[in-house]
Amino acid sequence: MQPYELTVAEAAEAVRTRTVSPVELVNSALERIARVQPRLRAFTAVTADRARATARQAETELAEGIHRGPLHGIPAGLKDLIDVAGLPTTASSRVRNGHRAQTDSTVAARLASAGTALVGKTHTHEFAYGLTTPQTVNAWHPERVAGGSSGGSAVAVAAGAAAFALGTDTGGSIRVPAALNGVVGLKPTYGLVPRHGVTSLAWSLDHVGPLTRTVEDAALVLAALVGHEPRDPASTPAPAVDYRPGPGTDLTGLRVGVPGNYYFDHVDPEVEAAVRRAIGRLEELGARLVDVEIPMTRYIRATQWGLMVPEATAYHERTLREVPDLYGTDVRVLLEAGELLSAGDYLRAQRARTLMRQAWQDMLEAVDLIAAPTVPLTAVNVGRTSVTWGDGSVESVPEAYVRLSAPANLTGVPSLSVPVGLDAAGLPIGMQLMGRPFGEAALLRAGHAYERTGTALGPPPEPAA
C-alpha cells in the first residue's frame, strides 16, 4: 500500500507511531496528483511547495514531541471557495481573475492549527451554483459527471489525491458528489462549522463540511472544524460531543426512520434496491426501523429555489452589472432570474422554511435518524441534461440531483452520505442519513457501523493513461 492510499485515521496512526513521516505522506499525495490531475482535473491549483514546507515543519515538531492531533501532517484539499491567505480564491470563475485572499478563512486557519498540509484548491461548479462541476470528471468513469458543486473535492479524495477535502453544501453540494464518486460526505448542522472567509452562494443555506474515504475520517475532520466564530452571524457554539464512532457495530436502540413518501419517489430501481439493502443491514445491526412521513414535500422545490436564487443574486449584484460576460451562461441566467423575484416571494419562502423546520423537528421526535437515497440516480453522462422516469415525467439533471438533498439544507439538519454499492455500470450509489440538529454523533455511529460490515467500495478504477 502506498502512503496516499491511507485513510486519515490510518495515516494519523502511522504518523503518531513514526512508521510513516508527514513528508512521505505529502510527497506520495503530490505524486498521485501529478498522475491523476491531467485526466480528472480535480484541482484549480496544486500547492506543492506549501505542502512540502508544512510536512517538513510537522516532521520537526513530531521529532520534538509536539503532536497536534490526528490531522498533523495529513494532506488535504480545499474547495476553491475557501480563503487561504496569499492564495487565489477563484470560485472556478473568470470573475475572480487576479483575486488573492488576504487572510485565512476560519476553517483554513483551524486546519492549519491542526497541522494539515494543504496540497491544493479544488474545482467547484462556478461559484457553487450547479450540480455537475463541468471542469472535473467522475473518478469512476471519465465520461460521467463528477457532481457538484464540490466535485473537485470529491474526486480528489476518491482518487487518492488528498486524504480528505472540504466542500460546501447549499442544496446538496457535498453529498451529491460524494454519492456519485463513492466517498463519504458530511453536511453538518447549520451553523456548526463557521463559514467566515468562505465565498457564499446563499447565506441562509450554506454549510461547510468534509469529504473523506471513511465515516471515521469524517468524524476526525469535523472535530477540528467546529466551534463558535463571532464573525459568522449563523455560527453556533459546538456542543461537547466526541464525534468519533466507537469500534463496535451494535446499533441496538437506534430508531431509523424509513420514508414512506418523497425519498423513494422517482428513484432509479438500482439505487432504491441498494439503499433498501443498506437499511436492512442497519436493522441487522440492531436498529429499529420506523415508518415516517416526510412533511410539506410539495413546498420543498419552491422553497429551496425561493431562498437560494435571490440570495445568490444579492451576493453577485455588483459584479453581475459590471462584468456579466465573465460568468458562464448557466450561472448568469440563474443570477439574472434572481432579479425577477420580489421581496414578497422571498419572505414567503422564509415562512415556508420556518414551518418546514418545525414539521421536521416534530417528525424527528419519533426517530434518531432518517435513511434514504442521497441522489435518485448515479452519475449521468457528461452533457446529459434531463432524465425521464418510468411514468413518463421528465426532470432536469440538476433538479434530480438536488431533490433529495435540499430538505436537509432547508431544515438545517445534519446529513451524511455513505457509499452503499455500485450499479450495473459500475457507478457508486449513496445512502443519506439525516438526524436531529447537532445529532452528528448518531449519524456517524450508524454510518461507521454500516461501513464496518465489509461493504466498502474500494478505490475507483485507475484512470487510463
From TrEMBL:
Keyword Repressor: no
Keywords attached to this entry: Ligase
Protein name as catalogued: Aspartyl-tRNA(Asn)/glutamyl-tRNA(Gln) amidotransferase subunit A
Pfam entry (one): Amidase
EC number assigned by the record: 6.3.5.6, 6.3.5.7
Organism lineage string: Bacteria, Bacillati, Actinomycetota, Actinomycetes, Kitasatosporales
Amidase domain span: 24-444
Any one Gene Ontology molecular-function term assigned to this protein's record: glutaminyl-tRNA synthase (glutamine-hydrolyzing) activity
InterPro entries: Amidase, Amidase_CS, Amidase_dom, AS_sf
